[in-house]
Amino acid sequence: MIDIDYLNFLENILTDNRKEKFLKVLENRTKHFTIAVEDIFQMHNTSAVMRSCEIFGIQELNVIEQRYGKSIDKEIAMGAQKWVDINTFDSISNCVDTLKNKGYQIIATTPHENDCLMEDFDISKPSALFFGTERDGLSEEILQRADGFLKIPMVGFTESLNISVSAAIIIQNLTNRLRNSNIDWHLSENEILEKRLAWAKNSIKDIKRIEERYFSENVK
């Protein structure tokens, strides 16, 4: 449960413009779609995918770090890591199992004999969209466990796009369609409160000192 008194205390420190911005952004956030990236060798690509998630309203990014233990490039992310939830997994199976248990269908973004073009993709089902490595694409394990396959239509000689470009195109297309649909894609009331609290904490300098003062004065 969210401590509403504590949330109000922190938000009173913020400017009205900041609080209004939080509410406006949260109106467009969704967990109906979530993004997963697998063992991305070039971490600036993961950072760029995170930035696309933030810009187009995807709240969660799932990162599988089975082979490469690299960190987010903060310059590329440009602060997006403060506003997007990053879930990390040490194995493909752990990531896929977790997302399936949350009710997501697993969608592999790769050319496949049973693939679907973006404009034909059924946006009504909660979906986890998987993007693979720059070198090898998605692993066989993910392809075997995928519930569906999605691709970007291309008419040139080049057969593939950089992962960060592919993710941006797909995320923008699907989230735009989602917002123009009758699907209930918004965050729940409790999820919005959780994000307001987390974002308020991310916005306040010396938050640890302020927290200590608040709880020392209010917790008996």
Automatic annotation (TrEMBL):
Domain of life: Bacteria
Keyword Methyltransferase annotated: yes
Record EC number: 2.1.1.34
Binding residues for S-adenosyl-L-methionine: 109, 152, 161
Residue ranges of domain tRNA/rRNA methyltransferase SpoU type in the record: 33-171
Reported function: Catalyzes the 2'-O methylation of guanosine at position 18 in tRNA.
Protein name: tRNA (guanosine(18)-2'-O)-methyltransferase
Origin species: Flavobacterium algoritolerans
